[in-house]
Amino acid sequence: MAIFTIDDVEKTFKSGDVSEKILKGVDLELNEGEITALVGPSGSGKSTILTIAAGLQKASGGQVLFEGHDMTQMSQEEIRKIRSSEFGFVFQSSHLVPFLTVEDQLLLMLDVAETKLNKKQQKQEVAQVLELVGMAHRKEAYPSSLSGGEKQRVAIARAIIHKPKMLFADEPTASLDSKRSKEVMEIIRNLTKTLKITTLMVTHDEEMLPYADRIVTMKDGLID
Amino acid sequence: MQMAWKEVKKSKMKFLILGSIIFLVSFLTFIISGLANGLSEDNAALIKNVPNGQFYLNEDAKQTYNLSKIDVDQQDKLLADYKGATALSIQMGFVNDADDKQHSVAFVTSTDSELFPNVKDNEVVLDASLKDDGIKVGDVLTNNQFSGAFKVAGFAEKQTYSHAPVAFISMKNYQEIYRVMEMQTVFIPGSDSPDSVKGLESFNNKEFLNTIPSYGAEQMSLNMIIWFLVVISGMLFAIFFYMMNVQKIGLYGILKAIGVKTSSLFSMMWYQMLLITVVSLVLSVGLSQLFSLVAPAGMPFSLPIETTLLLSVVFLVIGFIGATISGFQIKKVEPLQAIQQGEM
């Protein structure tokens, strides 16, 4: 069953008098608990469709339906609320908050998502999730003392700590070596399957494709 | 709040530098304010010590008290009509002690009044600062315009005028020294809405202070320095938080992407600004109050706690405005742009 529907989405970028159509009417349905990998050459529009789906930029046309609600018609505040409570993000760079410890990064996300957990429950939840990503022993560490792989594990933990319905991952393994990439993908797959999180992932790395349930190829702003 | 505090804890040096600058600027402001107050006291304590009221000067005096002469009949009528009214005159002069050492003073005389010491003929009541020059009760002082001699009858606390200690003398002695029968001004206490008196111009206490030569210019210069420092500190806040916000654009973008409210980011900045300012101000208020206790005796320094508290509030408001202006960048940050910029 489709939890997320992208319907005839277009995106045109304008620079002065010049305009370029990056997305030319993309249709895509994401089923609950499924991992969908978006692949395609550079400039095909895969990152653009991911950021539009995640509510990080507006579409020029078409509809983006999350649980039947059209996000293109929502206010910025409504989209922010969905992003904070229903979506999780993993980016190419981990983008951790430099002055927060690993544990605090996750506690912050629980606060932002306005979960109803009390402080003690929040700490227990953080401990569990850190255990799942194999980072429990580094909970007091700051990002500056973590390796690339460790940072990305923490970023994944931050993305799923509030049990979102959707996970958006933009090249989550691009900055990691092959071994670390596989470890990170295994974590993403295990967690999203366990928590039934629907995942849309952009990747260039063919080695990551076996971890996806479905592979969608984009070319010239359209689903191929 | 927690995030703001955690950043302060992690980046101690950065916040310590800003805190030190705010501390130094506010401390300097308090010290200059103390000097301004001290000089103001030194210049006009005699006037500042009297209750609120109206000073009447002759209209022809061009708002300069030492050019004013109140007609004797008019003076008598005013003193009879208004309870507590007093006529007074002030003139700069000097007295010589037994060793013929000259001391600059402001001679003051008044009609019978509770506001000023009532002095008998050939006696003088001096400002207590003259004790430091070795003058004691019972000493005899002279003046080359005065045929007799003044016996020191006592001392009065904090009675200075035009940076000179006041010497209260009787009206008869004053009239002999300055060869004038008329008083310069009539003071009527407590009249908020001054009655107009034909031929006279009224001034409230603050306005009268400005008729003292040099008082206005002196205070204006010092107050200008104080307000410049306050404005500079506001600009420092704006610049510091601007620099810090520029460094954190990527972070703000990511935080916005994961759903942090823009208002929460502003709160974080305001909390940090408040924390730094309050800590810096507590230190500078404490140190400036300590300085007022140990300031050299000859230094005109007066820093009431009310003044430091008022300036502290101004610093907080200015800091808030400075930080908020710089925070408009936060509003403009696009999450997508930050994500595409890569690692912070």
Kindly describe this structure.
The complex is a heterodimer of chains A (about 220) and B (about 350). With about 220 residues, chain A is of the alpha/beta class. Chain A has helices spanning about 45-55, 75-85, 100-110, 120-130, 150-160, 180-195, and strands at about 1-15, 20-30, 35-40, 60-65, 70, 85-90, 165-170, 200, 215-220, 220-224. Chain A has a single domain (about 1-225), classed as P-loop containing nucleotide triphosphate hydrolases (Rossmann fold, 3-Layer(aba) Sandwich), CATH 3.40.50. In chain A, the strands form two sheets. Chain A has a six-stranded mixed sheet with strand order 6-7-8-3-9-10. Chain B contains eleven helices and ten strands. In chain B, strands 1, 2, 3, 4, 5, 6, 7, 8, 9 and 10 form a ten-stranded mixed sheet that branches. In chain B, helix 1 crosses helix 8, helix 2 packs across helix 8 (about 260-295) and helix 2 (about 10-50) packs across helix 9. The longest helix of chain B has about 35 residues, at about 10-50. Chain B is elongated and about 95 Å long. Chain B starts with a helix and ends with a helix. The chains are: A alpha/beta (about 220), B alpha+beta (about 350). At the A-B interface, helix 2 and helix 3 of A face helix 1, helix 7 and helix 11 of B.
